[in-house]
């Protein structure tokens, strides 16, 4: 339960910079004309006004507010990093601010302090906002998109107009430094519990992270290893959105066309039904400030129709696809699981909250914005009864299996490292209760987690900051900081292939188990 109607709502598609690559590709390759109003590019021929720097004292004040609020509201800011280390990092950040600070540098400064704690749900979207704003002003980026396979860093799309660096090339070094150094250096900007999660998020944000760290550059010198095993040097020029689009048009990279942000149900073959529930939130409604909508009537209509079709088809197996799912709220996922659960369930074996003044203030703002009822009202009442600083248990109600017809066949859940937040919790729930079998690769996100994010705003920069107010343990009681480990491991999808090889492999396994 991560925050709003239920308990797991987090800001799903918002792991820090998680959507940066998607936005870059939308702006640069698809020529998308839709962007948040504040980030729209200037009209052709119109010089966009420069973004003013933030006064030094304003940045220092925001840093103090950030650290004080985190220390007061975060469930356990010092769980993975000592207070001594955090205090020292805070003092260094304050001391570094001696002159007006460009917003890019301020956003990176705030995010570094948040990421220091190694908790994925403590973050700010400020770096993403600044990066997209930079692109909207015809700024440039370094078009190096990567994925991390163990100790190898592979390029996932052509990085230069000449086509020398294509998909599958291995990145060895940047500016003369080994790529491992860059993963560690840029990892300081990523909120994540462990390196595997850091690297997963880098796969969706590497150009943005390079810009945050280096600023606007004309290009970088890099070393690669080609398919023939030979190393070579290449200069990767920076490009605008138009330049990125030109690279994509001249050197198109085949890629899986599935829209994982959408919902779908279909019969894949005799007896096997496929369900992609999509994000566990209202994907048809605009976000309410930093949070998505959790009004679920449209989702439940889809869900009921999907399972009615699955039952009518007489499917013996159900494959639930949670790949690249950003998560959402358990009030959505519980409704899905209830369609095939054979006993009462809940997503966590324990759920603990920390009372604080910042969290109480967040509840007051929520109550002023809209009526508070249901689970949110229960959470708000429980918070009001506790003195600040106290950690207290919150009883999670068991969810009953659906009354009436249910799916009683075999259930399979397909995940990958980009199954985040509540989608990882759903996979863990189904695995721990024995409702189904998990296939794919280990999730980067962890199903025992600090979550239930709430938000506050920095007074001068106006950036929104999220922190977790709770800690929950997966149904099995396992407190290890690790992802969901599939019972059936599957290899990663190949780079530059449009066919859904992973799905085909999963189906072959399902058919073979009959």
Main sheet: strand order: 8-9-10-13-14-17
For the largest beta-sheet, the strand count, sense and barrel status come to:
6 strands, mixed
Number of helices, counting only DSSP H or I runs of 4 residues or more: 15
The N- to C-terminal Cα distance equals 35 Å
3D shape: globular
| Parts with pLDDT < 50 across at least 5 consecutive residues | 1-5, 10-42
Helix content: 25-40%
By secondary-structure content and strand pairing, the structural class works out as alpha+beta
- Mean pLDDT, to the nearest integer, reads 90
What radius of gyration results from the CA coordinates?
23 Å
Number of strands: 17
Strand fraction equals 15-25%
Brief description of this entry?
The protein is of the alpha+beta class and 514 residues long. Helix content is 33%, strand content 17%. It has helices at residues 20-28, 56-73, 83-96, 103-115, 126-136, 179-187, 195-202, 206-214, 241-250, 297-312, 330-337, 357-369, 374-384, 422-432, 501-512, and strands at residues 123-124, 146-149, 152-155, 170-174, 177-178, 219-225, 231-237, 264-269, 272-276, 317-321, 350-354, 391-393, 410-415, 437-440, 449-457, 464-473, 488-489.
């Amino acid at each position: 339960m991560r925050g709003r109607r239920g308990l797991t709502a987090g800001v799903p598609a918002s792991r820090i910079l998680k959507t940066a690559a998607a936005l870059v590709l939308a702006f640069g390759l698809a020529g998308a004309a839709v962007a948040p109003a504040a980030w729209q590019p200037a009209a052709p021929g119109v010089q966009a006004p420069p973004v003013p720097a933030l006064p030094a004292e304003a940045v220092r004040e925001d840093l103090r507010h950030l650290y004080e609020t985190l220390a007061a509201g975060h469930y356990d800011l010092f769980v993975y990093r000592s207070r001594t280390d955090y205090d020292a990092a805070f003092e260094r950040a304050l001391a570094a601010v001696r002159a007006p600070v460009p917003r890019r540098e301020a956003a990176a400064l705030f995010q570094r302090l948040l990421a220091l704690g190694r908790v994925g749900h403590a973050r700010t979207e400020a770096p993403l906002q600044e990066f997209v704003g930079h692109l909207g002003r015809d700024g440039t980026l370094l078009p190096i998109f990567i994925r991390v396979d163990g100790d190898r860093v592979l390029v996932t799309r052509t990085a230069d107009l000449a086509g020398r660096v294509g998909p599958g090339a291995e990145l060895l070094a940047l500016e003369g430094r080994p790529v491992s150094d860059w993963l560690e250096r840029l990892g300081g900007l990523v909120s994540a519990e462990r390196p595997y999660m850091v690297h997963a998020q880098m796969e969706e944000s590497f150009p943005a992270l390079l810009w945050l760290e280096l600023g606007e550059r004309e290009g970088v010198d890099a070393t690669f290893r080609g398919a023939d095993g030979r190393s070579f040097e290449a200069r990767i020029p920076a490009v605008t959105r138009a330049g990125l689009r030109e690279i994509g048009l001249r050197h198109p990279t085949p890629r899986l066309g599935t829209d994982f942000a959408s919902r779908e149900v279909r019969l894949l073959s005799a007896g096997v039904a496929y369900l992609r529930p999509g994000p566990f939130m209202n994907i048809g409604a605009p976000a309410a400030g930093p949070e998505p909508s959790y009004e679920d009537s449209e989702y439940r209509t889809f869900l009921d129709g999907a399972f009615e079709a699955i039952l009518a088809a007489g499917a013996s197996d159900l494959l639930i696809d949670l790949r690249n799912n950003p998560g959402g709220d358990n009030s959505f996922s519980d409704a899905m699981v209830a369609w095939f659960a054979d006993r009462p369930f809940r997503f966590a074996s324990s759920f603990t909250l920390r009372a604080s003044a910042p969290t109480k203030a967040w509840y007051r703002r929520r109550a002023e914005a809209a009526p508070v009822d249901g689970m949110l009202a229960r959470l708000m009442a429980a918070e009001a009864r506790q003195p600040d600083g106290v950690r207290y248990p919150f009883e999670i109600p068991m969810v009953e299996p659906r009354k009436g017809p249910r799916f009683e066949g075999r259930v399979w859940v397909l995940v990958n490292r980009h199954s985040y937040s509540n989608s990882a919790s759903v996979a863990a729930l189904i695995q721990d209760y024995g409702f189904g079998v998990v296939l794919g690769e280990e999730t980067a996100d962890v199903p025992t987690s600090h979550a239930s994010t709430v938000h506050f705003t920095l007074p001068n920069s106006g950036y929104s900051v999220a922190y977790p107010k709770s800690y929950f343990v997966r149904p099995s009681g396992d407190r290890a900081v690790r992802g969901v480990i599939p019972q059936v491991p599957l290899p990663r999808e190949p780079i530059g292939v449009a066919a859904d090889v992973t799905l085909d492999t999963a189906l072959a396994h399902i058919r073979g188990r009959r």
